[in-house]
Description:
The protein is mostly helical.
Amino acid sequence: MTELRIHETLPPPPESALQKKASSPQGFGSLLEGAVGKIHRLETEANRSVAALLEGKADVAEVMVASQKVDLSMRLLLTVRNKVIEAYKEIMHMQF
C-alpha cells in the first residue's frame, strides 16, 4: 500500500502572506495601539455625524449607526483588555 502524505497535498502559502509576515512583525502593543486609534477615528466620525444631525444635514439612522459602531468597538476593546489582565494575573499566581 502506498504511504499517504498529507503535507504534499497542501498548497503552499501565498507569497504575499509570507512577505507581509517577514517584513512587518506586529506585537500585541502595536495591535492594541491600532485598535485604540480605530476607536478614536470612529468616535470622531460619530461626533461629526451628531453635529451634522444638529445642523439638519444628517439622518438619525446614520448617527445611530455611527454611535453603535463606537459603542461596540469600545466594549470589545474593554473585554479584550479585561481578558489580558485576567491572563496576566493568572500567570503571576503560577508557581514554578
